[in-house]
């Protein structure tokens, strides 16, 4: 009973998405019910035909009754067609609404959520699970209700025709109750496992496609293929378990109508011989039982679909019910226009959910308007975490960060992120044109001149113009058709097109060769002009672009100053940069 209650509870989460479509869906249900009632009436007319005109030879009466059967058949077909036409559009709209709502919710969820979830699992919830729900709502739910009603009404008619024949059918259907209980308690568990395994398989496929260069470079294609085949085998095993559970109830459900008809023929033949049952009544009862065959047989498939839909709702809800931890304040403050760009870290502490220690411990740092501060430190000291706090990808655990004196948590996210632009260590580009990728850096419409200006600032206009279609050149998935330096410069153009007041750059020169580094460095000099910038730096060339350097060690700012001042005063700083360039002191001096 708890499983059934849990199933209904999960399915109730669909109500908000279908509330606007309740009228056409209700009418569709009425049409389906009308079709079933038309079908149930045909056996009664058949009884009248056999016990009336056929027995008495009344040909005119026979014609009218045959025409009535024909009319009932047409009505059944027309009502079924109307049900389909009424139910399909609202269900498709609801499916689109669920996908749109889930996608929008994923955009609101903070990076901490996405750090913990596999992309394949999210993909399977937004595609496969929503499609499962739509199939259930389009067909299964209506007919689960209608067919159950049809069985009940059919049994009532059967008892009206001949109580003994109705009792025979009832006894034959009792095993269905036991089978349904067994099915309810076992099938949903297996269905949920299979859906989770499908998400894991989707993740493996996605990662193997995106990482195909790595697999080929290290010759690990066979290894991942073996991993894929193991996951596919596990999914196949879960699918077979679903079929095993389903096969049992199907065996019972398919056998029951045949047993019922056989028993009816035996009891009915005896009744005709004794005169307690007419031939028309027996034919009507057998016809009625035959008509009920599909409603009875369909219960197994409908129960399977209902449990699959409940599991899909549960999986959908695991994401949809996750509350964003980084949200807009109830009454956001407004930033002045123009923004000066002063950024202050005041006693900032940061600990990730579930972690036992702080990543950042009492960070105090001020970036003056228009100043570029390079953030340096050993791997794992919290540099990326610190930069992620400025646009509120995460919220501080203690302390605060201010922009022009206002705590960034009091600002609307849209307002904050419109003033703070980010260029990540990995230049992530999308399967779109150059123009679209650059324009993604602002939410307002952009002109071609604005896109070109951003490209000029990022020293990218020349190579873009050399592309086959210029600004309208599709650059392919992740921009892998471009060189590392070209991708990095497009990412810089995207960061500056919105004319931000604050720029956060996470090691923009990482993994670049000397020639490409020089090109991007030249672009950086232009990008950093006139904005407040926090730049994660590992290379001496990046450090020397900054007005000031902040050294982060074990989650704290341990030293600040110019590059030359720190070379003179900080042994830790010299040691840190010498791991990158052993000749730093010679080249710097």
Description of the molecule:
- Keywords: ATP-binding, Membrane, Nucleotide-binding, Transmembrane, Transmembrane helix.
- Pfam families: ABC_membrane, ABC_tran.
- GO terms for molecular function: ATP binding.
- The protein is α/β, with parallel strands linked by helices.
- It has two domains: about 10-320, ABC transporter type 1, transmembrane domain (ABC transporter transmembrane region fold, Up-down Bundle); about 345-589, P-loop containing nucleotide triphosphate hydrolases (Rossmann fold, 3-Layer(aba) Sandwich).
- It contains 21 helices and ten strands.
- The strands form two sheets. The chain has a six-stranded mixed β-sheet, sandwiched between helices. A four-stranded antiparallel β-sheet has the order 2-1-4-5, covered by helices on one side.
- It is elongated.
- The protein starts with a helix and ends with a helix.
How many DSSP-defined strands? 10
Distance from N terminus to C terminus (CA atoms, Å) equals 79 Å
Supply the number of helical segments.
Answer: 21
Looking at the overall shape, the CATH architecture of the largest domain is Up-down Bundle
Strand order of the largest sheet: 6-7-8-3-9-10
According to CATH, the homologous superfamily of the largest domain is ABC transporter type 1, transmembrane domain
Compute the average pLDDT.
83
C-alpha geometry: elongated
Could you describe the largest sheet, including whether it forms a barrel? 6 strands, mixed
The level 1 CATH classification of the largest domain is Mainly Alpha
Level of helix content? 55-70%
* Category by helix and strand content: alpha/beta
> Number of folding domains?
2
Spatial extent as radius of gyration: 35 Å
Contiguous runs where pLDDT drops below 50 for at least 5 residues:
582-589
| CATH topology label of the largest domain | ABC transporter transmembrane region fold
Strand content: 5-15%
